């Protein structure tokens, strides 16, 4: 086998996204996974709006949308009845719901797309060790048949999960702790009053319980069990789960058809760094946390969408190597925030203190009665509000309307100079920055790299009314810089700082 430009360890959602993105961008990749077959264990269910926005133009979103079940709200109940709900339809996205799909299905869809792009996952092959050199990494691979091999890629992506061998080999610390709660999980059918178009969360005085509708009467059940109603060892039984349900859930239901059940504990940790020399850490190898809010897999996918265009441009000699440092400076603050947010939500939902329970059940309806806070909560769950303001790649980037450099660019309706009515996201180049210019683009072209695609717009009322405005969009749909004709120097500075000069 050849030495690829990038070796990806792990074919979970993170590694598969990296392989799909990099191969789409023309990078020679190999992706290996220790497991001999795709994982059948069910974990992530929730695909968030931002993930759908990013995956759709990359060829897999429509299939995920076809397969998944849509939940339009997250409803909160106390034992006495419904308290309130987070109205996901208020999200500022076309995909204003959470898409529920078994992680093994999401992985299958990603693997099939990868296959269409000419890359096959090498299964039963594990990374056992690595050494970093000036221009490559020596990666030791061992196949299931005992054969070993050393490959020398220029870069390595560690997507090898929470117990990452690669993270340990690089010496990057994994800071955090194990949370005390143990969770019960089950896949079952449910007959009763539980709606199939919402996530239902029941806040009990002794722990919480959530049911996720998977479509066709199937539900995923997840609960804490502080009093051990389901026992404390072995897979929970249907009778035990029903007992837990009856004690906590405000909507009566009969549970049946248990396909599988299990227990798990949660760690809440993140890597101190996302880059160690030529190695990049992403997904669970870089962050693990409570499943509250269904964020983990989504974060891993978005890690790789952030990293891949940067790696591809640097490998093609079109961007400066420093661009690779911005993977960590973009993503680490988002990850820290996610770990804190999920820890807080988990602590609030699981508190067995009567005072804390009373505060939560009284406060939640009051807070969520405000439309502004509804929108904020929905955008946060959908990972639409996470962005890179203040990061080096957004520094000195200016603003356009309410958007600041580092923000996600909304999918606004625009009219091109040719009079075409389009959506902004459809105009973005997914391989390099796109300069969107209202008015005369000639003054902005001086010193511009050919890595930048230029598109001329006549209007985008939701973004700006300034006829001389421009904005520079990154391939992952975040604002790199913006201004008006008078700020042409800002554009030139961004291009000079991050991209390499064109060779004549
Ligand atoms: C019960 C539960 C519910 C969850 N619900 C959600 C949810 O609703 N939404 C959400 O976003 N997230 C959720 N998550 C989190 C989500 O499952 C993970 O964040 C996601 O699987 C991470 O993907 P990954 O590709 O980074 O790692 P993994 O899925 O762990 O994949 C790592 C891969 O690396 C391979 N590997 C390991 N070591 C090596 C090696 N040395 N060499 C080669 N290959 C190796 C493994 O075989 C594996 O295939 C949930 C997690 C749990 C436990």
Automatic annotation (TrEMBL):
Q: Which SUPFAM superfamilies match?
A: FAD/NAD(P)-binding domain, Thioredoxin-like
State the needed cofactors, names only. Answer: FAD
Q: Where is the FAD-binding domain?
A: 5-340
Q: Which Gene3D superfamilies match?
A: 3.30.70.2450, 3.40.30.120, FAD/NAD(P)-binding domain
InterPro entries with a match to the protein in the record: FAD-bd, FAD/NAD-bd_sf, RIFMO-like, Thioredoxin-like_sf
Q: Which UniProt keywords apply?
A: FAD, Flavoprotein, Monooxygenase, Oxidoreductase
Q: Name one GO molecular function term.
A: monooxygenase activity
Q: Which family does it belong to?
A: Belongs to the PheA/TfdB FAD monooxygenase family.
Name of the protein in question: FAD-dependent monooxygenase
| UniProt organism field | Mycobacterium hippophais
């Amino acid at each position: 086998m050849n030495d690829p430009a990038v070796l990806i360890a792990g074919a979970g959602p993170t590694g598969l996204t990296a392989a799909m993105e990099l191969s789409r961008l023309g990078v020679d990749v190999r992706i290996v996974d220790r497991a001999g077959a795709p994982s059948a264990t069910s974990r992530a269910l929730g695909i968030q709006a931002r993930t759908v926005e990013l995956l759709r133009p990359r060829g897999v979103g429509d299939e995920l949308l076809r397969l998944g079940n849509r939940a339009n709200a997250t409803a909160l109940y106390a034992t006495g009845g419904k308290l309130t709900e987070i109205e996901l339809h208020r999200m500022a996205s076309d995909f204003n719901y959470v898409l529920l799909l078994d992680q093994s299905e999401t992985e299958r869809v990603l693997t099939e797309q990868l296959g269409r792009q000419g890359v096959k996952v090498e299964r039963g092959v594990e990374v056992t060790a690595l050494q970093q050199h000036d221009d490559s990494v020596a990666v030791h691979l061992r196949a299931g048949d005992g054969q070993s091999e050393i490959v020398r890629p220029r870069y390595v992506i560690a997507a090898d999960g929470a117990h990452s061998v690669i993270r340990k080999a690089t010496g990057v610390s994994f800071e955090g702790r194990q949370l005390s709660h143990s969770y019960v999980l089950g896949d079952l059918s449910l007959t009763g009053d539980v709606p199939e178009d919402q996530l239902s969360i029941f806040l009990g005085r002794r722990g919480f319980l959530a049911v996720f509708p998977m479509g066709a009467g199937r539900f995923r059940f997840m609960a804490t069990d502080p009093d051990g109603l389901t026992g404390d060892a072995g897979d929970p039984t249907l009778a035990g789960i029903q007992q837990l349900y009856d004690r906590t859930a405000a909507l009566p239901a009969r549970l049946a058809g248990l396909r599988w059940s299990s227990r798990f504990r949660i760690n809440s940790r993140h890597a101190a760094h996302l880059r160690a020399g030529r190695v990049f850490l992403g997904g669970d190898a870089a962050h693990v946390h409570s499943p509250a809010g269904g964020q983990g897999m989504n974060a891993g996918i978005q890690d790789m969408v952030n990293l891949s265009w940067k790696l591809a441009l640097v490998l093609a000699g079109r961007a400066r190597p420093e661009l690779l440092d911005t993977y960590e400076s973009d993503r680490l603050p988002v990850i820290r925030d996610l770990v804190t947010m999920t820890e807080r939500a988990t602590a609030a939902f699981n508190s067995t203190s009567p005072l804390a329970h009373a505060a939560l059940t009284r406060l939640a309806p009051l807070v969520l009665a405000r439309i502004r806070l509804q929108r904020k909560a929905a955008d946060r769950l959908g990972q639409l509000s996470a962005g890179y303001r203040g990061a080096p790649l957004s520094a000195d980037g200016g603003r356009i309307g309410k958007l600041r450099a580092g923000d996600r660019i909304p999918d606004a309706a625009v009219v091109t100079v040719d009079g075409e009515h389009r959506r902004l996201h459809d105009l973005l180049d997914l391989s390099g920055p796109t300069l969107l210019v209202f008015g005369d683009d000639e003054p902005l072209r001086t010193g511009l790299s050919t890595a930048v695609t230029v598109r001329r717009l006549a209007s985008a009322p939701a973004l700006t009314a300034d006829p001389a405005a421009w904005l520079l969009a990154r391939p992952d749909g975040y604002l790199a810089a913006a201004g008006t004709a008078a700020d042409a120097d800002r554009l030139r500075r961004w291009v000079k700082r991050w991209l390499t000069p064109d060779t004549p």
